[in-house]
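Protein modeling request. Please complete all fields; requests missing the sequence field cannot be processed.
Requester role: graduate student
Desired output: 3D structure, token encoding
Chains: 1
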Amino acid sequence: MYGGYQISYRLDSRDPQRWTTVEVGSNARQFTVTGLSPEHAYVFRLTARTAVGWGEEQEALVVTTERRERPQPPRKLAIPQDGVESRHLRLHWVTGGTGSSPLRYFTLQVKELPSGDWNTHTADIPHNVTTWTIDRLKPFTSYKFRMLATNDVGDSVLSKETEAVTTLQDVPNKPPVILAVKPTTTTSVLVQWKRPDDNSINGVLTGYRLYYRELPANNSTFAKAEVQATKNNTTSALITTKSTFKTVSSASLTEFELTQLKKFKHYQIVMTSYNIIGESPPSTPVEVSVGEAAPSVAPQSIRVSAVSSSILEVTWDTPPLETQNGLIQGYKIHYWERDKQNQSEKVKVIFVPDTRVHLTNLTSYTPYLVTLTAFNTAGDGPPSDPRGSRTLQSAPSQPSYLSFSEVTGGSVNVSWGAPLTPNGQLEGYRIIYQPTAPVQGVSKVVTVDVRGSWQRWLKVRDLVKGATYTFSAQALTVSYGPPIQANISAQPVQGAPGSPVEMSITKTSSALTIHWTEGEIGAAPVTGYVIEARPSDEGVWDSFIRLVPPSSRSVSVPLERLRSGISYEFRVIAVNRYGYGQPSTPTAALAALSERPFYEEWWFLLVMALVGLILILVLVFTLLLHGHSSKYKACGTGKHMSTAEESVTLDNGGFTALELNSRTLNTKNSFLKKNGTRVSSGPSPGGLHYSDEDICNNYNGAVLTESTTLTEKPTEVSESELTDSDYEDEQPKHSFVNHYMSDPTYYNSWKRQPKSLKPISTPFGYEECATAETEPYYQTVVTQHSTGGAYTPTGQPAHTHVNPNTNPPPGSRTPVTGFSSFV
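Delivered output (823 residues):
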């Protein structure tokens, strides 16, 4: 125990042997000295006393002054290169000003780079030193340092930081951890390990060394030596006795294969990690038997198929014989849910000769992955690639909830949640509801099947006001799951608003407007209104407009939303946070008839049809006129048209049967075609056929484009034809028709004809078509034996010219009157 303290002091400049001494008790922790001279330096000593005696003295210098201040910080902090070690540094500095007060101590702060904070490393460095050894540092780590000085006034400001300094490397503290040693063949093993922690490497990891040695058959003596060496913590004692090592010069590797081992021998393996400074302590030894190796190939042809909603069947083939490395003892089947491997992985072991297994107690309609490994006495082979399959569907669980909303006296909206475990693809839901007690003596059970998994609500509208109903909901996959049930009364809930009043409806040409007045508010303010409609052809109320603002007292319904010819009734329901209130009194039934636009009236459609018909008739008539006009203009459009002359000779044997046919001229400004004179033995006059359909004349300025030909009836005929070249070389024969028809004054009246005519060069001469330069005329066919046999178009005078001085040749006959045709 401390017996007290002794305090001694003197002037620093006086005799060092002249002290003033004062003793205080053991409980004192401070002492005040008075009567000192100002602006002088005093030396104080403090000594503690125990029962044994006085202890070591502590000395301090004190200056008595009123002008004291904080000291200056140390400066020129430096760490020379020779002062850098792996776990400590030597720091040098220069002391700053004392501030007219003696320094008491220095404080050292350190910061570990790159992201460390400043921490106090040493807080009591003596005031009279200028170097300090900084210990407790980490190898191969960068630091910065700073200091501050302290006197009786207080601490100085912090000094400038030193430059970053990195400690040297040191040997690794820890070895790698051997994870497994697996025989790969009958003479090799695969060593797998885990890299040591980064903070234990103490530098840059260069690689690893694997030490292995063969264990003797009787290793009792060896084991004793090994235990003693372990107690002495000497690495060489463990790994140098008959040991061989392999160096792995890559720090990133985590496995290595030791080869060329002896069969049927036991080996001990240890590992160390090393850097440029040295090796770490050895790892824990691992023993392995060499001679049998684990299979080097996984099972083959793995097939996974679903048997039921909770069973998968797995089949496989054994690994190839040359890869089994011994006798296969069995297989390990690892299986898990595809999305939950860590939480659901399981292992099942099957022994030979089975190559088929059923995985049971699985989750319905869930994908699973399966891997297989073969094993023998040496260990497990490599795993196969995952194979997957999904279990079959089963009935789902019940819906997660069943709730009701929009409850009125005759309807309710039923909602439900999807099942937590669907166990398949949801195909729909089944909703069943019935009154808990018979209504008017009838208990009706209604079943509604909702197809599809997306709709999870149902609006029920056929409830009886005030009755309580039981609802149940079931989900459907391959079958229906268990139901969830709940009861509801078909009446507004307590606190709901009352029904709106003063209902009325007005109609315009485009819309219906529904008016109402707010009823009882209920236990909470009205949050909106719902408009329901009931068509006359259905008889069921249905929501028509939802969530009308609470401030509204009317709403307009466009007539386009209503079906034409159907009468509608409307009612309004007020809504607050408690639910739907009682519906209002329905409005009067009003038919949704709107004024149709004029283009939908029957008379407008009839007028449009008549106008269309008239337009079609006008178009057809215009096309016909255009066609006839083109036809009449085609004949005689050129100024130089050739005259086609045809000669018809009648023999004495009878009449010649002739036909006049038309053909279209397509030669250049010429009517010359191949013609022939056919002689008949004498047909009767009735055998003559005349064609007056094609008339070639200049009538009203329109020239027809057809030419007239005379053809003979198919009787006994001798025919001679002229070629086109013959017609081209032959000069047109003079005809009295052309002669007189070329005179415009002649054909105006037959009374103007001269008394005498020139003889016609050829009996029965026939000419057609004058040139386009002549005025309109009517062509005729003239014979020498007739005075009135010329044919003219209906209503026109016939111009027939006969030479009275000319007699018909012997055997000739007078042609039939009117034997002519014009085109």
